[in-house]
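Summary of Year 1 activities. Much of the first year was spent building the evaluation harness for sequence design. The harness presents a backbone, in tokenized form, and records the residue chosen at every position. We chose the following record to illustrate the format because it has been used consistently in internal testing since the harness was completed.
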């Protein structure tokens, strides 16, 4: 902590300027005396404030580490969401009208009020309780050519502070949209790949990803019993198509293979890019199969990672990732691998059981 001005405050944060403001309030430090970056929760700076106060009182360097239980208790979970989807099909089976109504808290608006305006959890939630927010329905702006299209956000006050999550609202938005697309394809008696391709005339890069992933994953047409499901998504200038092959084993979901083809513009380091997509796919599988907290007495009851039913490496199966190479602008790689896994898995299981999986996580009991 010793520095030119008496103290240095080193912490791991994502929102550096916001954290600098907090550290300055607590210790009177300048931004130049604070260093670090991070993944996720430390956008909310309570741990940094605690460390600063303890170090000042102790007059000694402090390393503060939360236990897993405290980390979970103080976390801001991804907002729950519920959607009602309606579509009108034309004589050829293609979509002529689409309406999606999504109820969800405005999580990113809440987070911004906490970070930028110093609002408490309760104040930020109250500020946004009745506010619609386009960011709460990101991922619902589907790439398909639909002449009559509407998405409406209905703000939901769930009496629980919510926050950012990898993929943000695209994670549940893609699940809603791509699951519905697959159901419409089956209802129209059109093969799911062909159904999507007919609607993607204005998005050739995404269509190319779809065509490539069906070759990579040996697509069998999504026929009953195939255990294969497709989904695709575009976000932040990037595009991805995912094919999941899965089955059921002793009442549990068994993933055999996840194939993905992404177009994220010019790649500087293809190996690192592939690892990012692979990590996103496994994160998306965790969203599909586990990760749901249970609350009791206003606190999460699941206080260990082992309580969340997250898939282990042995549960993942084979993962294959390829890229569509081009020299276009680069897009983000950190989140695009997440959203399409869950709808692809749900559609794969539907070919085996004949049932539709419209709720996450998908558990052995629901399957």
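For this record, the design step produced the sequence shown next.
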């Amino acid at each position: 902590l010793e520095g030119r001005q008496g103290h240095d405050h080193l912490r791991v944060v994502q929102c550096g300027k916001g954290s600098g403001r907090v550290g300055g309030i607590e210790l009177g430090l300048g931004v130049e005396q604070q260093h670090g970056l991070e993944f996720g929760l430390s956008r909310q700076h309570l741990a940094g404030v605690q460390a600063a106060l303890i170090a000042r009182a102790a007059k000694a360097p402090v390393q503060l580490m939360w236990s897993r239980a405290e980390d979970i208790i103080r976390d801001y979970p991804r907002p729950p969401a519920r959607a009602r989807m309606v579509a009108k099909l034309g004589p050829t089976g293609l979509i002529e009208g689409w309406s999606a109504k999504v109820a969800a808290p405005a999580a990113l608006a809440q987070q911004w009020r906490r970070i930028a305006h110093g609002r408490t959890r309760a104040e930020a939630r109250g500020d946004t309780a009745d506010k619609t927010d386009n960011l709460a329905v990101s991922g619902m702006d589907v790439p398909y050519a639909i002449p009559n299209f509407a998405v409406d956000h209905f703000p939901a006050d769930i009496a629980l502070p919510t926050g950012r999550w990898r993929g943000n609202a695209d994670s549940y938005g893609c699940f809603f949209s791509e699951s519905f697309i697959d159901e419409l394809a089956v209802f129209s008696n059109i093969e799911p790949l062909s159904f999507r391709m007919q609607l993607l005339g204005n998005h050739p890069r995404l269509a190319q990803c779809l065509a490539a992933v069906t070759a990579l994953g040996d697509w069998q047409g999504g026929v009953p019993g195939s255990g294969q499901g497709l989904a695709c998504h575009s976000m932040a200038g990037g595009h991805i198509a995912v094919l999941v092959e899965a089955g059921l084993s002793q009442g549990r979901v068994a993933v055999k293979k996840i194939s993905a083809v992404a177009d994220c513009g010019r790649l500087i380091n293809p190996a690192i890019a592939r690892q990012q997509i692979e990590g996103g796919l496994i994160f998306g599988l965790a969203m599909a199969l586990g990760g749901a907290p249970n609350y009791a007495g206003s606190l999460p009851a699941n206080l260990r990672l082992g309580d969340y039913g997250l898939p282990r490496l042995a549960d993942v199966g084979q993962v294959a990732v390829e890229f569509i190479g081009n020299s276009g602008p680069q897009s983000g790689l950190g989140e695009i691998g997440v959203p399409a896994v869950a709808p692809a898995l749900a559609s794969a299981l539907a070919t085996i059981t004949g049932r539709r999986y419209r709720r996450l996580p998908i558990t052995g009991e629901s399957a």
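The chain has eleven helices and eleven strands. Quantitative recovery figures across the full test set are reported in Table 2.
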